[in-house]
Amino acid sequence: MPNFHSNRLAKEVVLRDPVHEYIHIEDQVILDILKTKEFQRMRRIKQLGPIAYVFPGATHTRFEHNLGVYELTRRICNIFAKKYPSRRSGDGLWDDNNRLLVECAGLLHDIGHGPYSHTFEHLFGTDHEKIGQKIITDPSTDINRVLSQVSPNFPALVASVIAKTYPNPQVVKMISSQADADRMDYLKRDAYFTGVTYGEFDLSRILQEIRPYSDGICFTMAGMHAVEDYIVSRYQMYQQVYFHRVGRSMEVILQHLLERAKIAYQQGNLPVTPSLAKFLAGNWDLTDYLKLDDGVMETNFSMWTKSSDPILADLSKRYLFRQPLASVCIDEETKSLLPKLKTLIKQAGFDPNYYTDTNSAFDEPYDAYKPSGKNANSQIEIMQNDGQLIELSQLSPLVRSLNGTLQGDERFFFPKVMMSNNLEPQIFDPLYQKFQRYVKNGTLRYIRKPKK
Predict the structure, then answer these.
(1) Smaller CB count within 10 Å for the chain: N or C?
(2) Phi, psi of 404 (to 5 degrees)
(3) Does residue 9 surpass a pLDDT of 70?
(4) Are the beta carbons of 175 and 181 closer than 8 angstroms?
(5) What is the DSSP-derived secondary structure letter of residue 239?
């Protein structure tokens, strides 16, 4: 078992945090990571991206989220070391020699995120987890130099925890499972900064009842209801915050804005900062990636509001000045109406390729708890008094009712003007009225012809 140690600070550094009250930094390597330019870049990347257009307070960044995950990881290590210390090899309890490794992994788990992470990844083919591992292991980065002072192979081991290949499942699942430090922090933090109460759950009770076992991390039977509350809180946050229709509308605009920018760049008619130009050209490297943040992107958007390309200029304004698209719910049956509606939108003067889209909230990155299927390797286990492990939904009727349910919705996005009702006659009024006949109570519907 590796035994990694960092120089302990003579006096711990304590940071105030609105979610966890205090974040305690006790090791020199943690403090040194915070000072690196790669970690400081996280200050300039919002945690929730376009969601801030819906919840104005949601301007918190990945910097404080990473710190929060580190703090929860540190607290869990303290609990395990005190209550469940390993006495002999293979006893399934906590070996505190893993502490520094998992604390660094918790601190750096999101280091690879870029601006508007999931939208950006979809368009440019990046992968924040793989880029994060590259930042940690590449000798050119400050983070790699800091980690290498612990041990030459320490950066690779930290990266392996994030990649979920590290052989100790307790270490991996502390920051990557269905009830991990990452999810616990972002739910509490996102709820706090959006101003909602959906993400509130009894974190103190959960930490009191968390425990290690040979194949990972579980919870005692006494903590079952606190974990149950956590699952319900996640469900509510997905529905009310992460899947909010206006936030998704702004993501649609952002995606089409960048798609149009790609075309304008290829035509040689686009003012653009050098680092983003590399992505539009498809020949970027890690150095270019690390130069990108929200500020860089918004600088480009601001320049593009003056673009000679009318679509690019309009989409840039719509994103910067919060002019979301309208949307209606659709299903498999009403999808067949979309070509007809797109024709009406085109006749009203909008290119459907840039001003319409379908967006599903079912497969967002904030996936719901599923004890089977793609997340079967990260079930939430409840330990009985005799040591038996039972999956949470087998004990909780409430969680079982959520298991396997289809959550979220699918929407068709389009220019808001299509729903206009003008007091004075306008040239496109007949098109608007024809379009609106297909919409009722926020849902797309077929027009039923009256029976003769």
Answers:
(1) C
(2) 85, 0
(3) yes
(4) yes
(5) I
